[in-house]
Design a protein that fits this description.
By secondary structure, this protein is mainly alpha-helical. It contains two helices and two strands, in the order ββαα. The termini are far apart.
């Protein structure tokens, strides 16, 4: 049984197997080789979860951007079908007559 801290990582001990999965210069040791492997596994799991969260957030942002694009296109099509003069054209004409 591997003893873990509150974050799920194996507890660092004063003696034991040196673990290279910590900050440089920190002489971190765990109670066994299994604990060292578990430390690396836990870090890899956290990194994968963070990457998955970032990918999901990016996908959601892109979906909103795509939806906004298509909503704007639908609005432009509706305006064109109903004879609404586009703002840039109306603004240009107003400036020309001012």
């Amino acid at each position: 049984m591997i003893t873990c801290d509150e974050f799920g990582y194996p507890v660092i001990t004063d003696t034991g197997i040196r673990c290279g999965n910590h900050h440089p210069g920190e002489d971190a040791r765990h109670e066994s080789v299994t604990a060292v492997r578990d430390c690396y596994r836990r870090a890899a799991e956290e990194e994968a979860a963070a990457e998955a969260d970032a990918a999901a957030e990016l996908a959601a942002e892109r979906a909103l951007e795509d939806r906004g694009y298509w909503d704007a296109r639908a609005q432009e099509d509706w305006e064109a079908a109903h004879g609404v003069i586009p703002f840039d054209v109306a603004f240009r004409e107003a400036l020309a007559h001012a």
